[in-house]
Amino acid sequence: MSRKFLETESPAWVTEGLITEAQRERLLARYPSDAVQAVGLLPLLGSILVGLSALSVVAANWQRLPTQLRLGLLLGSLVAAYAGGEYFLRRGNRRVGHGLIGLGLVVFGASIILTSQLYQLVGYDISGLLAWVVVGVLLSYLYTSQSLVLLPILIGAAVQTYCTQALGIFSYTIMALVALGSGYRWWRRPDTLVASVLAVGLLWQAALWVALSHSKITWFFIPAMLVYAAGDWHRDRPAARALQGPPLVAAYLFALGLALFGETDQYAGLLRPPVLAYLGALAAVFALSVAGKRQQGRLASLPDWLLLLPGFYLPGGLPLAIATLMVLYAHAGSVLARAHRSGEAEQLTLGTVLFVIATMVAYFKLTWAFLDKSLFFLIGGVLLLSLSWYLRRRNAQRLAAGVASVASPGSAAASPPSPPKPLA
After folding, report:
1. Which of 139, 192, 229, 329 sits 20 to 30 Å CA-CA off 96?
2. If you ran DSSP here, which 8-state letter would residue 263 be given?
3. CA trace torsion 45, 194, 187, 309 (10° rounding)
4. CA distances from 216 to 6, 207, 267 (A)
């Protein structure tokens, strides 16, 4: 909550009797003005500039410095960052304190890399980088900070990228540390931003695994939908949605690409894994997802799995494009139906966008070649106007039903109760 919002809204709260004037003043005192916050950031910004200046000087003369001095600078920077973080935390300045702790984690990783270069350690030994991820995960448990939870996820993705691109290996330990370590931390303290970043980080590592192992691209969706299934088991619905968002986006883009470019069989060598192995693994993840949805009462979101229908096993051509478009339409319709039942405006907007995308893909894919351009755009405009009219009509019906449901209990309460009947 910002001070500007309080200054704007709190007088009306006092007028309506929600709070007193004294309480309003206490609330305003709790949230300092933007100017005070900006002044409070000046020492931090000045310290960062001084630190960057010292860092640039050291970097420019790094190779000329004695080995002991280099190690002393690395160790001193590490101790200074952690000690400064603890100092500000004890004084109640959590932002600066957590920022310095995060800086210490970054310095720790840089120290590992620079020390390896200094002593020319073996390049294929990733134990030092693995220790960096371990320390990051441990810090996320020691401190209640969103940034310190995000850092090990990003560090894990960066280290995994280095391992696959520079060393040609995939570290399952790093993926397990991020999935289990950071994942359990999020599970105990759900957060929507952390959920989104965690899902993207795990999907990135899954993509690196597919690329390094030269597997079929579709194997990517087994770990991706495992992330989705984990969201089905979490009680916090907003955090679960944030975790499931990236896998669903990836699945939708894949289905959209299949609808656009699936008319040829050029994709067969890239997308078709062994049937029994792939469908068995996908069925196991699907069963896990269904069990979670049933446990949390979210079976209405089961049509999300329509995007994972393995249509790429079908022969290419127009039938495959039409079948994929039908899947996209069915998925968009399920999102719209779910939004109308729950009354969520964001889901309604999302369903509308998905429906329009499917319509445009079908339109350009199936009609552009044989319709006159004027008739082409005319039909498209009529379709979009019809969709807009239908959605507005549905919203009006829901609003009328809501007003009626609110009015009916009041009228029933206003009528006097009937006298009890005499006993026979």
Report:
1. 192
2. T
3. -170
4. 55, 11, 10
Q: What is the pLDDT of residues 226-257, one digit of tens each?
A: 999 999 999 999 999 999 999 999 999 998 88
DSSP 179: I
In the numeric block, the tokens 């995000």 are attached to: 150
Q: Which residues of 111-150 are buried (b: 16+ CB within 10 A; e: fewer)?
A: bbebeeeeeeeeeeebeebbebbebbbebbeebebeebbb
Phi, psi (deg, nearest 5) at residue 224: -65, -45
Tokens at 128, concatenated? 């030092």
Angle 55-57-60 from CA coordinates, rounded to 5°: 105
- Give the CA dihedral 253, 371, 265, 255, nearest 10 degrees: 20
CA distance 173 to 196: 21
Q: Which residues of 175-196 are buried (b: 16+ CB within 10 A; e: fewer)?
A: bebbbebbbebbbeebbeebbb
DSSP structure string for 86-122: HHHHHTT-HHHHHHHHHHHHHHHHHHHHHHHHHTT--
Residue 39's pLDDT band (boundaries 50, 70, 90)? very low
Q: Which residue has the tokens 């695994």?
A: 209
Inter-CA distances, 132 with 85, 104, 179, 218, 256, Å: 18, 11, 16, 31, 39
345 three-class SS = helix
